[in-house]
Every structure is written in structure tokens, then in C-alpha cells.
Amino acid sequence: MEKLFKKNFLAKTDGKEAGFTLIEMAIVLVIIGIIVGAVMKGRDLIKSAQIKNAYETFFAAHYKAITSYYDKTGRILADGPVNGGTSTSNGWMDNVHLDSAASRTNIIKAFSSVGIDICSLVKSNITSDECGPNGLNIGQISLDGEYSRQTTWVGYYYGSFNGRYRNYLRLQSLPTDFAIAIDRMVDGVANCASGTFQAAPGQTCNDGQWPDASETAYVHAGWIVEF
Q: pTM (2 decimals)?
């Protein structure tokens, strides 16, 4: 066994056995570094693609549907029963959380009444019974965050942002790395205390900094809807 090892892994130099030279070891380390870097870069690209896909096909799809409903009707979605809400119409979304099957059914009916097929617009990897044969869940999505897997749900809410009441799309239990990335997509910078995309009302936001994803796996975020 020893002879076989020497034959394959040791070179002969002036009749003496020698191992790898420093140059050879350096080359190997460089190659390993390149491979590790490529793997990490590939991982980052895959994660970025996952976040972008969730943003475009789920969260942004909800946002666009809400504004389309207003453009078609002049009314605010989830504001009063006629708009899929629960309270008297008053210009504010009725804090309708779409992890509830009953709420999803009412919202789907409101969209359908004005020709918006929300079941085709919103894509999720979770199924439900409200969206026809495909059973897509318009209110929830499962996301693989950097440090945890979360079932995130959306809701049509109103609340106070920087002392001013606003209608907003609530993103509940959103992986922190997704929140930071989506904030950059919406506002161009990650700041949980300013812009259109912020920490949801009542959530901690220290000096505009989103929490460290390694310490806080998920957050609750709000995407202010402008009509």
C-alpha cells in the first residue's frame, strides 16, 4: 500500500522522493478557490431568481390587481362587502387577511365581478379550493428564506406609516432576506422606515435597518398602495 501511494503521489527528483512543490500547492488552492467562488455565485444567482420570481408572480401581481380594481371601479378593494371587505365602506381596506379561505372567496368574487381573474394573475406553490381546477392559493406562498422556510400570507390592510394612515398590501411572515430584496426592487434602497415598502405598522424598525436575517428569520412588511 505504501509503495502504491509513493508511486502515484510522490515524484522522483534527483533520485529522492518529494511531495508537491509550493507552486503546485498554490495552483491547487487557486483552483479550489475558483470552484468555491463559482458555487457561491451560482447559489446567489439561484436565490436572486427565486426572490424575483416570487416578487413578480405573487406580490407584485397582488399589487397590480388591487390598482386595476380601483381603475375599473373607482372603489377600493376590500373596502366594504361589495368590494370583498367586511365593514362599512369608508375608504380604507378592511384588514382582510388572505390566510382565511372565506376571505379569499370574497376577494375572488369581488375581482371576478369586474372581470379580473385573480386566480390567473397570482401564482403560488400552495393549493386551495377557491381557484377552480388548478386550486391555486391566491393568499399564501411558501418561501425558502436564507435561514428558514416560511409560509407567507398577504392581506389588504390599512394602518399608520410615519403618522399617516395608508392602505397597504400586508406581507405577513416574510423571510427577512426576501423583505430586504423586495424593498430594493420597490424603492431602490433597503430602508424599513421610509418609501413605499416598509416594515408593517407596529413592527420594530431600528434606524431604518431591517433586522439581520441570521438573527430574525422573518418580518412583517407593508407595501403602501397608492390610488
A: 0.81
